[in-house]
Design brief:
247 residues; binds 3-methyl-2-oxobutanoic acid; eight-stranded parallel barrel; alpha/beta
């Protein structure tokens, strides 16, 4: 079992699709680790696991708690931890917080949401030796409007510029969330680092999904999520049977 490195991820661009899933717990980390290149401890855990209204409520301590667990049980995959809302508002704040996340979880990289506006912060972290994954397109920390992005010229131009700025700042990969196919294709061709799509077409260099969504465990099913099971229904049946037997 060879550890996936950032170099290996970079080498996959235009060659082998990069496989990624989210994990917040020991069991999912162990399973994802068997099959995936990258495991993301996403701040989606706020909504998916803790029932928060948006990811903005997630605290850095929560990311560290879940990040530590996932990293402990993912021996092969590259583990990336999301930096939560308002933890990277300036270079020094970002460095202090990213350093804390890396030190306490021993994860391989952090992910920051945003484009041109945070490119200088990404560059600062990368220059200080902190590997960064970017995230452009739909940005859940900035907007609660979960609509497809890139439908008009200005959005397309902006998101493309965001991806280029993040790539030039030194991010080793970029998540592209919920953008039109033609834009995802254009971004993948315009940046030298791998693009990881979520609802952003097959033209990305890899794909990511929120594991609870694809397992049918969450209540959130965007159009682009293929449901591979309906675990919520299965658990419901099991609990019902158990309670019936006890009674
Ligand atoms: O928080 C998260 O799980 C994410 C994915 C949707 C990419 O950022």
């Amino acid at each position: 079992m060879q550890k996936i490195t950032i170099k290996k991820i970079l080498n996959k661009k235009n060659k082998n699709p990069i496989t990624c899933l989210t994990a917040y717990s020991k069991t999912i980390a162990q399973i994802a680790d068997k099959y995936c290149d990258i495991i993301l401890v996403g701040d989606s855990l706020g909504m998916v696991l803790h029932g928060m209204k948006t990811t903005r409520e997630v605290k850095i301590e929560t990311m560290i708690l879940h990040g530590k667990t996932v990293k402990n049980f993912a021996k092969k995959s590259l583990v990336v931890v999301d930096m939560p809302y308002r933890t990277y508002t300036s270079k020094s704040i970002a460095y202090k917080n990213a350093n804390k996340v890396i030190k306490l979880t021993r994860c391989d990289a952090v992910k920051l949401e945003g484009g041109k506006k945070i490119a200088k912060i990404i560059k600062y972290l990368v220059d200080k030796g902190i590997p960064v994954m970017g995230h452009v397109g739909l940005l859940p920390q900035s907007s609660i409007n979960f609509k497809l992005k890139g439908k008009n010229f200005f959005q397309r131009k902006n998101i493309l510029q965001d991806a280029i700025a993040v790539s030039n700042a030194g991010a080793f990969a970029i998540v592209i969330e919920c953008v039109v196919e033609s834009l995802a294709k254009k971004i993948a061709k315009s940046v030298s680092v791998p693009t990881i799509g979520i609802g952003a077409s097959k033209y990305c260099d890899g794909q990511i999904l929120v594991t609870d969504d694809m397992l049918g465990l969450s209540d959130f099913f965007p159009k682009f999520v293929k449901k591979y099971s309906n675990l919520k229904k299965i658990i419901d049946k099991c609990v019902k049977s158990y309670v019936k037997e006890v009674k």
